[in-house]
């Protein structure tokens, strides 16, 4: 639909695990499944190489030296980094699972786990990441299109999406019906909307961003 | 009758015979000497008779004097007054004889009176002397008593196995007993004034100074605990108790203070605290699921690696064409991680079966008493009574003190846990008995919830537990301890509660 969504997205698993054997095994498994991995020995190490845009998901152990997995989750949520998180633990208890999932973790895996459990969780996390990215880029392009509208055109788009007839708009803005029809055509073109329904959807997306 | 006769004879003796004899004796002496001197003088020489009368009255009393006077008068009249050898008296001598008789009577009276006075004086002097002697003796006695009690008091303060000091009015120490000086290894001068505070531990000196100042300010009793440096430089805990002493005017006369050595109590208290802390730490470890979680974590890590490797390995092999190189590397890791997992298992095992246990002679009854002391607070907190019934026949046994202590503690805590939900008869009993020639039996009996058949069957197996959050290791450890001691352990369900028995060999 948009050019951003069409771009091939390279997603990576950011693995934070202090146990060398487990870390090696997980890297090997992900490699065999064709998934790129970047490994970190601790939460601090990960935070040190944190950038604004990290496509993919985080796979981390609860028990880590220094900052624990749960604390890292809280820290990321606070700094507004919306990367999906898969949490692993060797001794998961129910309250901890509940807390992690409530805080936005995609999946909670109790060690040891089957490869399918992890790969499915990663698929799900990647999908969530992709969906979020698409939504973001869509909103970005809509905003750009909206910015290209003139003040008059913006008035027209609001009135049209509010369900007003062309005649009513003409009366309201003291314009001729022909002029209104012309504005309306220009708006539809600039906003790349095929129908009125499309335009209403775009307007809703814009509204949610403005809010 | 006889009494009267005796009385009569004694009266006769006193008032007649004795005065008569005295009078006759002196008068005869006077007569003989008068005969001897008569021819020397021209007139009748009768003065010696006056001497005889005087002596008779002196020695024989008034009666003897009168008798001597009468006899003398007759003898003078008969022998020396002309006409001699006749009682008749010449006219010119009558006044002479009369004068003689009057003088003799007067001498008698005077002499007797003198004698009586003398006797009276002597009598009262004797009485006086006796009284003085008596008083002197009394004084000496009381003096000796005072000295003795003083000596005893000094001996008491010196020899009493207690450290004592006394201050002057200003509160500076002026006397310290031998025990205190010996302990401190200094002289009393080194205690005077502020130098007194130098005997305390630097950390305590300030508090002693503050308390002592406060007590003196309020003239109230002082009680303060502090470490005091001994002659050897080491410190011991003391309680100092001082009381003010007032004079008649109500002002401070001095202070008396004792130093009471409480080092041993203090140390026992410390030991008890340490033991209790150890106990609570131990029971906490046992009651929490931490141990299980730690083991689970330790094992789950290599298991995760193995499982993940296995999956990866299969994926490399399932590829078209199979990636054999990667599959081999992954398989190698499976081998490595499996070894690691088995190491974890053996480490956990060694945690529960110590191989370096020590055997030494131990008094089982004493160990149980020690345990009861340790558990006292915990039992009180849980409102459980502890009762010991220890047989004196139990001999000293060769055992691993730490392990057996742990075993006893475990059983006691289990018993207490079993009574947590029971309202009546919350008492835990520990009994010892000599069950056979070379075996003693210990029983830990509770009045708790009792045993189900399933519990009885499996309770000594590892990971079997009926407790929320229990590890199921406690009784398994108990059994392994007992087996190491070649003993047996078993449980007996009772009508109200459970008895856990174990035996230990006395000849092991």
How is the secondary structure organized here?
The complex is a heterodimer of chains A (211) and B (508).
Chain A: H1 3-6, E1 12-16, H2 20-32, E2 36-40, H3 43-48, E3 56-61, H4 69-79, E4 85-89, H5 94-102, E5 105-110, H6 115-147, H7 151-161, H8 166-173, H9 177-190, H10 196-210
Parallel strand pairs in A: 1-2, 1-3, 3-4, 4-5
Helix pairs in contact in A: 7-9, 7-10, 8-9
Chain B: H1 2-38, H2 47-80, H3 94-159, E1 163-167, E2 173-176, H4 178-184, H5 202-218, E3 222-229, E4 235-246, E5 252-261, H6 263-287, H7 290-318, H8 324-352, E6 360-362, H9 364-381, E7 385-390, E8 397-399, H10 401-418, E9 427-436, E10 439-446, H11 453-458, H12 474-484, E11 489-494, E12 497-505
Parallel strand pairs in B: 7-9
Antiparallel strand pairs in B: 1-2, 1-5, 3-4, 4-5, 6-8, 9-10, 10-12, 11-12
Helix pairs in contact in B: 1-2, 2-3, 7-8, 9-10, 10-12
What would you note in describing this structure?
The complex is a heterodimer of chains A (211) and B (508). By secondary structure, chain A is α/β, with parallel strands linked by helices. In chain A, 59% of the residues lie in helices and 13% in strands. A five-stranded parallel beta sheet of chain A has the order 2-1-3-4-5, sandwiched between helices. In chain A, strand 3, helix 4 and strand 4 form a beta-alpha-beta unit. Chain A is elongated. The two termini of chain A are 24 Å apart. Chain B folds into four domains: 2-122, no CATH class; 163-261, Beta-Lactamase (2-Layer Sandwich); 269-352, Helix Hairpins (Orthogonal Bundle); 360-505, Histidine kinase-like ATPase, C-terminal domain (Heat Shock Protein 90). Helices cover 58% and strands 17% of the residues of chain B. Chain B has helices at 2-38, 47-80, 94-159, 178-184, 202-218, 263-287, 290-318, 324-352, 364-381, 401-418, 453-458, 474-484, and strands at 163-167, 173-176, 222-229, 235-246, 252-261, 360-362, 385-390, 397-399, 427-436, 439-446, 489-494, 497-505. Chain B has a five-stranded antiparallel beta sheet, with helices on both faces. The two termini of chain B are 104 Å apart.
